[in-house]
Design brief:
Radius of gyration: 23 Å
Number of helices: 13
Structural class: mainly alpha
Distance between the termini: 40 Å
Shape: globular
Helix content: over 70%
Mean pLDDT: 88
Number of strands: 0
Order of helices and strands: HHHHHHHHHHHHH
Low-confidence stretches: 236-242
Largest sheet: none
């Protein structure tokens, strides 16, 4: 459901499962429930909410000595930190936990940590090839897509855009899903202007906006501005059509003229 875009239904299902497990009072399953909801909120870019659920999941995993769950919590925290990072924020992303638990990490998790450390000075200068090489080493395509999207949102690299486009095509062959819409969302956000959208991409742009709004993810202010400009232009065009239509009615011309005007 999350990949298809049924995020409302996913949230309802996850909350129902959480309520059931709360009644049973089983800490191990409650921890998984909290982490699953945290992942969904992360997809929605609701990072404070995601962190809140991580904060509830982690102690339960620790209580049961579930290192896989503890590490998953830390990995999600790391992804959120990467998504939120900006040059204006002081300090760097902390990876010390992962270095202490290095032997417990999976291969893809180790690659993610190394990529974060490579990019910690917020520059891709002379590093793009190395980062793409490391991304290609990530075994799961969905994980490779996710990390590429995070890096693209931060660095706006054409090389990363091409990689994400390739992954998006592979992961959305059967239908237009999250991987399709996220790619175009980032393309419009960082590599497109309103003129190009109006002339060539209007229908797809509106589809991208609809997908994320329907799934309760707030649009970036830049995307909101583009959407407002398109809606405003459409409104002006509709007003002109109505005026033309009304003018024909008042002039007493034939119904055929009305259809042509509309």
């Amino acid at each position: 459901n999350k990949i298809k875009g049924h995020w409302r239904e996913s949230k309802n299902q996850l909350e129902s499962i959480l309520e059931y497990d709360r009644q049973k009072n089983t800490p191990a399953t409650l921890a998984i429930d909290y982490l699953n909801i945290a992942h969904l909120e992360y997809l929605r870019h609701r990072y404070p909410e995601a962190r809140g659920f991580i904060a509830m999941a982690r102690p339960l995993f620790e209580k049961n000595n579930r290192w896989d769950g503890i590490i998953e919590c830390q990995v999600l925290e790391l992804k959120i930190a990467l998504a939120e990072f900006s040059p204006q924020k002081a300090g760097k992303i902390d990876t010390s936990f992962f270095r202490r638990q290095w032997e417990r990490l999976g291969k893809d998790q180790k690659i993610l940590v190394s990529i974060v450390e490579i990019t910690e000075n917020d520059s891709l200068k002379n590093k793009t090839n190395l980062i793409i090489e490391k991304l290609d080493q990530i075994h799961r395509k969905t994980s490779r897509y996710e990390i590429t999207a995070l890096l693209l949102n931060r660095f706006q690299s054409p090389a990363l855009l091409e990689l994400l486009k390739s992954l998006s095509t592979e992961l959305s062959q059967e239908n237009k899903n999250y991987y399709y819409y996220e790619y175009f969302y980032l393309y419009y956000l960082h590599f497109c202007d309103i003129r190009e959208i109006q002339e060539k991409e209007k229908e797809r742009f509106n589809g991208v906006c609809y997908f994320f709004q329907e799934n309760q993810r707030d649009l970036d202010p830049v995307i909101q501005k583009y959407k407002h400009a398109l809606d405003e232009k459409d409104t002006r065009y509709d007003v002109l059509k109505v005026r033309n239509w009304w003018g024909i009615i008042c002039s007493g011309k034939s119904p055929r003229m009305l259809l042509t005007a509309w």
